[in-house]
Structure formats: C-alpha cells, structure tokens
Protein: Transcriptional regulator
Amino acid sequence: MLVFPQDAARDEAEWREWLDGPELFGVLAVNNADPAGAPVVVPTHATLLTGIEGEDGPRDELVLHLARVNPVFEHLEEHGEVRFVVTGAVAYVPGPWRAAPDVPPEHGVPTSYYASVQFRCGVQVVDDPAGKAEVLTHQFADLQPEGGSAPVTAEGGPYARMLPAITALRLPVREVVAKFKYDDEKPAEHRQRVSAHLEERGRPGDRAAARQQRRRLEDGA
Structure:
C-alpha cells in the first residue's frame, strides 16, 4: 500500500484506536498456489489479540475461523504469509469541493478518503477441536461482549458437534502499515470545508470520513 507522509499514522496508538470498535471486518488476502493465478481473497470478521507470547516476546495476533471447505486453505498450504486488510471511513470527494479558491470549481480534482490498516502475518492453521474452541471463545468475547451464548468447548455443549465443520486460523502479526487519507496536506480551511460538505451530504461513510478528517486536523496531523 502506497502511503505518502501526510497520510501515515501518527503513531501505533492511532491505528489501534481506530480499530478498537465493535467489530473488525476485513479481507484476508492469500497468494494463489498457481503463480499465474489471481490472489485469493476472503471477506471475514477477525479478532485482534495483544500480548500473545511468541519466540521474540509479546506480539499481536489475529484469529478467525472459516468453513472447513473454504478453498482458501489449499492455497494457504503453499505460502507462509498472508495479509489482512481493514478499510473504513470511506467517502468519495467531488472535484468542486477540492478546488482551490483561485481555481474554477469545475477544475477541481476529486479524490477518495479512507482509513486502511494492513497486517502482514504468518499463518498457523488450527484444526484440533480444543484449539478451534479457544479461537471461537476469543471471537465470541470480542464480537459479542454482551454474552448470551453457551460456552464453546470441545468436550460438549451445543457447539462441540459443529467444530468439525470449521477450521481456525491464528495469524501472528509481523508488520502493520496504516494509512489515513484525508487531505492532510491541504490548509485547515480546505479540510473544514470538505468535512462540512461530507456531513451535509450524509452518504454511508461520509460522516465517519468527516470525523476522521476533523480528528486529524484537531490533532495537528
């Protein structure tokens, strides 16, 4: 992912705070086992765990589960790394909104606003019942904090008999690249004006994009 200096995350805390919402949904990208084939991509929820002990000390780890018959697994066996990409707060910004004061509005250049975090990860396929139950327990706690579901165990309960139908993944995080593309190189007046337009238009994603733009402006990015 191309990240110009003005679009880079200020620090690790910024992308962590952005991802610390009610749900983490993204795209798992895997190299095709056939070098001539297109990459394999899978949209899915995932859970980000922190402080997982690894060979080099504590690390972050993404965990998720997929149907056992998902064809992505035949490609995972061929490669040692994957990417998981989360993108949000997306908005299309029309050219007239971005025209400089001395430029006719119809000459303005449109752009896209978005936030995106890309994880480069190792791969651990989890196929034993206890390991899958552990991953599901993490995901239930993350995605359904209000509870309401029975515990997930490999020994019994309502979910034990369903575990053979899924395969879990643990993805140790090796690198994180974060991008917040909200015209940070433009003057404050420009960004305030665009934020106001986004809030007024109100398409899906507009207000989230405006919040990110205002936050970056207020934080001095």
